Amino acid sequence: MSIFEERRSSKAAQWSRRLAAFALVLLLIAAPSHRFGLLETVAFFWVLGVVGLLDMVAFGLAAHGYYRLWQYGERAGRESTRGLVLALIVSIPFLVSGYRILAYPRLHDVSTDVVDPPAMLQAAGRRTPQMNLIGPIRPEDAALQARNYPELTGRRYAAPPERVLDSIITVIRNRGWQLYGVAEPPTAGAAVEVEAAAGSFLLNLPADVSVRLTDEEVSSYVDVRSSSRYGLHDFGDNASRVASFLVDLDAAVAAQAALPPEPAPAENDEAPADGEPAPEDPQPEVPVPAPAPAPEPALEPEPLPEPVPAPDLADPEVPADGLAQPDPDDSEIFQPDPDDPEGAAN
Hints:
This protein has helices at 11-35, 41-72, 77-103, 121-126, 139-148, 161-174, 237-258, 341-345; strands at 109-111, 155-157, 178-179, 191-199, 206-215, 220-228. It has two domains: 11-103; 109-258, Kinase associated domain 1, KA1 (TATA-Binding Protein), CATH 3.30.310. The protein is of the alpha+beta class. Strands 1, 2, 3, 4, 5 and 6 form a six-stranded antiparallel β-sheet that branches. Mean pLDDT is 83; it is low at 328-334 and 342-346.
């Protein structure tokens, strides 16, 4: 009688699959919750830490399950493979973040003007002690930015500050950022800042943005600063945000410049009283073209005189020279007047 020992199932492999599945579910719940504002950022970081820890444990248990399969022949192949696949899926965001940490400089505050960056006074007042402080950009960070992002420079526009400010607010609203307030256009030689709250594309990690508009009298100059609220590494997010904002602003200012200037209101225009409808704008009179003059009738040519027929020389009554002779009967006979001596003399 043969006795066959039943193969034992590896508990390490089973727990590998369970922990990896739990970490995946936790990640799929936490990421959208933070993306749409249902989970605070600090709590989200704690959840990410738990997910990463569970993922590493799942990797270790899957490896131990393969070891038990090879060494003792335990049933661990399927469970360890499932746990390994789920752990790899969970580790994708962490692997991408690790790559971005190595590929981008260690910065969390980026500005087009590193010497005198926008002050971000409103954003500084909204930050808690758990967040990064807003202050001057350190010289080593400025040098690191200059080496990695030399294209981040301010913009000078040959447009009045009123139009540039309208373009700035339009771009901020189109990008879905939350404005801290609408500023008034700067006076000649002065500057004004427009601040807003922004977020990263995927996880909506919070950051603050400040756009400084300076009136140079003959032109308008724009500087942009973006600062992350949490973490010492922004994974290149701030530089990408500033660069894309400037591209959108260039297009908006160009579109504003293509519009015709708005006509100034007339001096004698009066605002309608309360409850009275505003007077309609008078329609411009369209000149009616004068009727074209009737064409003059064409002059008929005068009829030519009828030609005189040539005399017939064969006619015996016509003399040879063609001239008609007077009729002696029709000729007048001159008889002098006996009372006129001169006539008698003649």
